Amino acid sequence: MDTNISTVMLSSGLRTGAEYLRQIADDGRHVYIDGELVKNVPAHKAFRGAARSMARLWDIAADPALRDEMTFASPATGAPVLRCFHVPKTREDLAARRGMSARWAEASFGLMGRTPDHVASFLAGYAAKPSVFADLAGPEWAARMLAFHARARDEHLYISYAIVPPQIDRSKPAHQQTDPFKHAGVVRERDDGIVLRGAQQLATGAVFSDYVYVSCIHPLQPGDEDYAFGAMVPVNAPGFKIYTRRSYGEGATSSFDYPLSSRFDETDSLVVMNDVFVPWEDVLFYRNIPLCAAQWWKTPAHALGNHQAQIRWATKLRFLMGITKRVTDITGSGKLPPVMQALGEMAAYATIVENMMLMQEHGATTDEEGTLWPSRSALYSVMALQSELNPKLLNMARELAGGSMIMLPSSVRDLDDPEIAADLERYTSTPGFDSRERVAALKLAWDLIGSEFAGRHEQYEKFYGGASFLVKQNMYRNYDFPRAEALVEKALGLPE
Question: 123 is in which domain, residue-wise?
Answer without folding.
Answer: 17-154
